[in-house]
Design a protein that fits this description.
heterodimer, A: 5-stranded antiparallel beta sheet, 4-stranded antiparallel beta sheet, 1 helix, 22% helix, 41% strand, B: 52% helix, elongated
Chain lengths: 170, 182
């Protein structure tokens, strides 16, 4: 009888320890993954010139259905002027030049517990704070946020920022 | 010649007086040229008459008051307890080894449970064991949203626009004057 009780106890302990070990292994691997992935995150800045005059919509923008909805639906032509890819590092500024002479400054502030990215953005001329001094946004991987309204060449610049674009679900 | 089911049904309805007047007239007309249907009608009539007379005879013979009295008496009588069976129940026999088998089964179940837990943990996708789960936080949220905005000396508006998957995407619109080409 004692032997059987011992065997039962061993079975339970074995179950607990194997489960614990496996969970710990996953935990450590996911933690290391997180550390690797959060120190540097890829990002993409989409610089679009949108105009109300009839024209063409760049085929690359067709996936971005948000650009066909208000307040963007008044634009009848959209042209991608640039699409720079960059890497956002925690606490470090990344700069992207705009065609109107201003610069977009992006800083990855934090990776949230729900895996969204907290990003700070600013759009200004060098050494000035003439347009958008500060914008703080949280965004999921692959989901853009937009800053629009700068006039340029008879149109409007629409700047889309996508953090971790490879993880986009669309 | 054999009549169809529809004709039989119609004849039956005629017999029961369930037909509309026009249909009844039509069936009556058909009956004149169909001795077979007439014979069928006669047969049903005889049958009905016979049933009626039997029923009348039986109801005369039955003393309905006495029958009702018997039924009431049965309903009102006290219930009788049924004695439990006095059959000798066989004693339970202890079979040596069965308990051990049950315990060994428990041990085997324990090991199986261990294996299942181990496999479940190993097979659980890494994405599900992400920081969200580890931190005990909620599910991953889609879209983007503005936490803070400083428009400086400009006027700005914050919009939410729906993305392709129904997620809410942040749009910051700042009015601007032409800056010109660099």
């Amino acid at each position: 009888m004692n032997l059987i009780r011992h065997l039962l106890a061993i079975a339970v302990v074995l179950a607990a320890s194997t489960a614990g070990a496996a969970a710990a292994q996953h935990s450590s691997s996911s933690r290391s993954d997180r550390a690797a992935s959060t120190s540097t995150v890829p990002a993409e800045v989409l610089v679009v010139l949108a105009k109300e005059e009839p024209g063409t919509i760049d085929p690359q923008l067709k996936k971005l259905t948000a650009l066909r909805r208000p307040p963007f639906n008044s634009f009848r032509s959209m042209e991608i002027l640039s699409r720079p890819k960059l890497k956002l590092t925690l606490g470090k500024d990344a700069l992207v030049s705009l065609p109107n002479g201003r610069r977009v400054k992006l800083t990855l502030l934090r990776v949230m517990p729900d895996r969204r990215y907290k990003v700070r953005a600013a759009i200004n001329r060098p050494n000035k704070s003439d347009y958008l001094p500060l914008l703080q946004v949280v965004a999921s991987a692959g989901d853009p946020f937009f800053v629009a309204g700068q006039t340029y060449q008879g149109g409007t610049l629409v700047v889309g920022v996508i953090v971790d674009p490879k993880k986009t679900a669309h | 010649m054999q009549r169809s089911n529809t004709e039989d049904e119609k004849l039956q309805m005629f017999f029961d007086g369930e037909l509309a007047p026009e249909e009844e007239i039509a069936v009556r007309r058909d009956l004149e040229g169909s001795p077979e249907a007439m014979a069928q009608l006669r047969e049903w009539t005889q049958l009905r008459e016979g049933m009626k007379s039997i029923s009348a005879d039986w109801s005369k013979k039955v003393d309905s008051e006495a029958l009702f009295g018997r039924i009431q008496a049965q309903i009102g009588s006290p219930t009788r307890e049924v004695e439990p069976s006095k059959r000798h129940r066989p004693e339970l026999r202890v079979v040596p080894g069965r308990r051990e088998r049950r315990i060994w089964g428990g041990v085997a179940t324990g090991f199986a449970a261990a294996a299942v837990i181990f496999l479940a943990v190993m097979a659980w996708p890494k994405s599900r064991l992400g920081p969200t789960d580890l931190a005990g936080a909620g599910t991953r949220t889609r879209g983007s949203e503005v936490l803070e905005a400083d428009f400086g000396s400009n006027t700005g508006t914050i919009f939410e626009v729906e993305g392709g998957a129904g997620e809410s995407l942040a749009v910051v619109w700042i009015d601007d004057e032409e800056v010109g080409r660099p």
